[in-house]
């Protein structure tokens, strides 16, 4: 759970008016937010369809990984404030972090990896 909606569309949204309105509603295009893991490598655990809208639910580990490897303070706050990590298989999540961090600018930044701090704070280790 987090307080925004991320989406991916087959068509590009060109209207600045629509983009501005979506931003006000806290709706973000996933391509501008999430880079790792790549969308085609996400493990999808559920799918909901509403007319022409399909909502794909990633595994909790993929969801947490996308927030861990983001540089947005909002994603850090989501991991800190909501029970996302509490629901993860921590061993699986650590393997995903090790696998995907090399594709980010964070790999060689020793100050970036805050997973252990969050796990301690949430009494998960």
What does this structure look like?
- The chain has 125 residues and is of the alpha+beta class.
- The protein contains five helices and four strands, in the order E-H-E-E-E-H-H-H-H.
- The strands form two sheets. A two-stranded parallel sheet has the order 1-2. The chain has a two-stranded antiparallel ribbon with strand order 3-4.
- The radius of gyration is 15 Å and the shape is globular.
Question: What's the helix and strand layout?
Answer:
Elements: E1 5-7, H1 16-24, E2 27-29, E3 44-50, E4 53-58, H2 60-68, H3 73-81, H4 90-100, H5 115-121
Parallel strand pairs: 1-2
Antiparallel strand pairs: 3-4
Helix pairs in contact: 2-3, 2-4
Domain DUF6036: 15-113
Protein name: DUF6036 family nucleotidyltransferase
Organism: Allocoprobacillus halotolerans
Low-confidence region ranges = none
Q: Average the pLDDT over all residues and give the rounded result.
A: 84
**What is the count of helical runs?**
5
Strand content: 15-25%
Strand order within the widest beta sheet: 1-2
- Helix and strand run: EHEEEHHHH
**Based on DSSP secondary structure assignment, what is the total number of beta strands?**
4
- What distance lies between the first and last C-alpha atoms, to the nearest angstrom? 22 Å
């Amino acid at each position: 759970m987090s307080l925004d909606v991320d989406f991916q569309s087959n068509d590009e949204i060109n209207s600045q008016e629509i983009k501005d309105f979506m931003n006000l509603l806290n709706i973000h295009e996933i391509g501008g937010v999430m880079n790792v893991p790549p969308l085609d490598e996400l493990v999808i655990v559920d799918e909901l369809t509403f007319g022409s809208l399909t909502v794909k639910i990633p595994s909790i580990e993929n969801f947490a990984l996308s927030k861990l490897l983001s540089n947005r303070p909002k994603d850090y706050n989501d991991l800190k404030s909501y029970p996302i990590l509490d629901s993860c298989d921590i061993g699986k999540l650590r393997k995903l972090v090790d696998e995907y961090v090399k594709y980010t600018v964070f790999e060689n930044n020793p100050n970036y990896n805050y997973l252990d701090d969050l796990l301690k704070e949430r009494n998960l280790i």
